[in-house]
């Protein structure tokens, strides 16, 4: 009977509707401003953080669908409003969680966090760290894991370009930054915060501060794994980033050339020296495979990956062939390409090695 539809039944149905930006229930986040039930018709007002939110129609549709699924409701009127300043402040406080303050260690950096950290390092620049980070992240996302990607190359950021989202600005609600969601992963990079490619001239302490901000000010939500794209080399910068993430494990990227392999070993030794476990070696640009005949051309020689793995007493986890990225991106390979398949295999291997499934289950 229509008259029996209660406010509780409506709220219960709306619990499943998430704000796509913060990925929390609109009920939990107090975004449902009013509910009125007239016979079998529900009138609901939902408040969004900013006027003209691009996701407005997504939420509107989801709210309407949820209402129409309630037994006894035959029609739904949904009004989307905008939060007042005060409501937005309450919303932001809720996002940050109780008692959050600038001095507190962010959840992701606490020693008992169930999120795995994997840093992608190399000796030489330009061997494909960022490409590997981005594609491995997407592949882990395809396996259903919640993946955060941090462009820890504060000065030489490149991940937004690689993903094709260089022009996107992250949503900010009262100083809480939402990571940019792209291809099933969440991304944060310095590039989102520098106007028009202006060079960044901060030194030492600023680097640490910036990276810390990537945790303190960013609402990541629950994550199973965080990939860190490190700056190249074995210099101070890479060392600082190592120091900042004592828990992170490392993947070493190299190309098949001897010169790249030599420096990659040094990068790996630095990781080991700073007590970071090396998970294995990725040999990137390993070969070019002719699409028609399937023949492989080893443009950069052979053996670099195996040599690095030997030097570090670990194994080559993947050999990524050369290839063209998908349109609209500068470095993401299609799932069904040779590269995409190699990354899928790598993601499966890593998920097993890091026991991601068990960790995710323990968290939820
Ligand atoms: N498997 C691949 N096939 C084809 N091109 C690739 C491949 N991997 C990387 N590249 C290209 O090589 C260049 C360097 O790659 P990338 O930026 O990922 O390296 P990097 O190690 O992160 O560099 P940096 O040290 O500057 O941060 C880019 O232009 C990238 O598109
Ligand atoms: Mg890079």
From TrEMBL:
ATP binds at residues 123-130. InterPro entries: FSCA_dom_sf (IPR034904), MIP18-like (IPR002744), Mrp-like_CS (IPR000808), Mrp/NBP35_ATP-bd (IPR019591), NUBPL-like (IPR044304), P-loop_NTPase (IPR027417), YlxH/NBP35 (IPR033756). One of its GO terms (biological process) is iron-sulfur cluster assembly. Pfam families: FeS_assembly_P, ParA. Keywords: ATP-binding, Hydrolase, Iron, Iron-sulfur, Metal-binding, Nucleotide-binding. GO terms for molecular function: 4 iron, 4 sulfur cluster binding; ATP binding; ATP hydrolysis activity; ATP-dependent FeS chaperone activity; metal ion binding. The keyword Hydrolase applies. Homodimer. Binds and transfers iron-sulfur (Fe-S) clusters to target apoproteins. Can hydrolyze ATP. Belongs to the Mrp/NBP35 ATP-binding proteins family. This is Iron-sulfur cluster carrier protein.
